[in-house]
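Bug report (template v2)

What were you trying to do?
Predict the complex of my protein with iron/sulfur cluster.

What happened?
Run completed; filing so the output is reviewed.

Input:
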Amino acid sequence: MKKYLPPLFMLMIFEAVAITLWLTKDNIFYLFNFSYIGLSISLGVFLFIKKYKHARRIVQLLVGLYMLIYLGLIRNENMQIEGFWYYLFTGVFEAATIHYAVAKIFGPLLFGRGWCGYACWTAMVLDFLPYKSPSQPRKKLGWIRYITFTVSLVFVASLFLAKVGNIEGIMFWAFIVGNLAYYAVGIALAFAFKDNRAFCKYICPITVFLKPMSYFSVLRIECDKDKCISCGKCKRVCPMNVDVTDNSRKRKNGTECILCMECVRNCPKDAL
Ligand code: SF4
Ligand code: SF4
Ligand code: SF4
């Protein structure tokens, strides 16, 4: 039964967050929200332990669709980076701010870029494309993420500085247009570079938060050097070009690991 402790532990962490936010903010939405996400992730971990091939994809769809359709389109919470700036500037501690704090700013200290592997609704679509492992060397285009990050910040700041009315309405449309643009650019880049995750590697502004925080992640893949036979299969299947056999925090593309477990599943010696 010991092997089933991780999903149970995961569920307990999310329940603790759910109950704390429910009681402190006197809003039952937080109980529902974090319980649902906790249950989805725990189910994924349970299925992974059972060696079910599509465990990660199931969590990605359960969490990604919930956030995109229910939180984004039905509840009008802009969970894109523009929404985060918006709520930050208005000083409102709303779902988008909490979401960024938990999933993208402080959470990565614990679970790295688990968000990118299991919950992001952009990658949820990109992962359906045919190029699961990159066939070409990585390009030196990571600087683009700083431009998209700055553009999102300047866009929202200018709305406030220009005292534009109905910013909330603009944020809703920014969510729709932003998502469509992400999907269009993400799909085009995936085909151009033959790499499903090209958008994540070069364009996504959220990685400006995710990468430095996940450098210190408690949860990370490590290699047992005594078992490893240096066959290189783990690096060939890795969608993010991580040099996973190097255990140091400075390993090549270490902050790109999305904890997808493809390397673990494919290692012939169970060394990861
Ligand atoms: S890098 Fe960006 S687009 Fe890719 S999975 Fe992470 S948050 Fe989503
Ligand atoms: S797949 Fe396993 S055995 Fe092969 S290099 Fe990677 S860790 Fe070592
Ligand atoms: S294959 Fe392994 S190293 Fe690469 S992103 Fe997935 S978990 Fe990380």
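What did the reviewer find?
The chain has a mean pLDDT of 90. The CA atoms of residues 73 and 172 lie 8 Å apart.
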